[in-house]
Amino acid sequence: MANNHQPFESWIFMPGDLTAGDQQALQEHLKECESCQQLAQALQGVESRLRAAPELSPTPGFTARWESRLAADRIRRQRLQTYWVMQVCIGGATFLLLLTVLMVLPSLRLPMPVLLAWGYQIFGVFSYFGSLGKAALTITGTLLGAIPITLWIAILVAMCSLSALWLVAFQRLTAPRRVAQ
Ligand SMILES: [Zn+2]
Predict the structure, then answer these.
(1) CA 31 to ligand 1 centroid distance, Å
(2) What spacing in Å lies between the alpha carbon of 149 and ligand 1's midpoint?
(3) What is the average pLDDT across 135-149?
(4) Is residue 1 pLDDT above 50, yes or no?
(5) Is the pLDDT of residue 136 over 60?
(6) Theoretical Cys-Cys bridge with 58: which of 29, 68, 109, 139, CB 3.0 to 4.6 Å?
(7) What DSSP character marks residue 53?
């Protein structure tokens, strides 16, 4: 139950596209779920700041309607971008966590000493890369030391891009039906 934030989490970012029933369900969920409530409040804070920005405030008179529609489109796009960036960050963090778990998984046996061993191993991995980087910088400065790290970063970037692509495709497939406006 604690993790059951979908589809509400994505609905928070597209309230204009929801049916009345979906809106109702979202409001019900927000009453009970502190995490989604915080997300909605954070988004509201961002949006009110966007609206307060001078280029987004509609000018009175003839062009007001046209301009407020532009502003609404812009807010919608920014809202989607914020959502994607958040998803990519979460995806990247999950990937890193998974990688760490996979690295220390073989030592999974006893609770307490294993926890200490995990900490030691993680620390060891970090200091290994740390000293590798230091050696590359201070001692040789040649490509030999930099290649593994560069490769590592390239793989990470590629994985992040792939997961971003996947998330976009996933969002397209699972997006709540859009209401024509
Ligand atoms: Zn929730």
Answers:
(1) 9
(2) 38
(3) 54
(4) no
(5) no
(6) 68
(7) S
